[in-house]
Amino acid sequence: MNTATPIPAPPPFPAVRAHRPGLRSLLIMVRAETKMVARDTAGMVIPFGLPLLILLTSASSASQEVIMAGRTALDLFVLPLVAVMVLTMIGVLNMPSFLAYYRRAGILRRLAVTPVSPLMVLLAQVIVSFLHALLGIGLAAAVAALAFGMRPPIDLAAALGVLALITAAMYAVGMIVAALAPTPNSAVAIGLIGFLGLGATGGMFGSRDALPGPVAEIGAHLPFGAGMDALAAAWAGQSIEASSIISLVAAIVVGSVIAAVFFRWD
Question: What UniProt keywords are attached to this protein's entry (predicted)?
Answer without folding.
Answer: Membrane, Transmembrane, Transmembrane helix
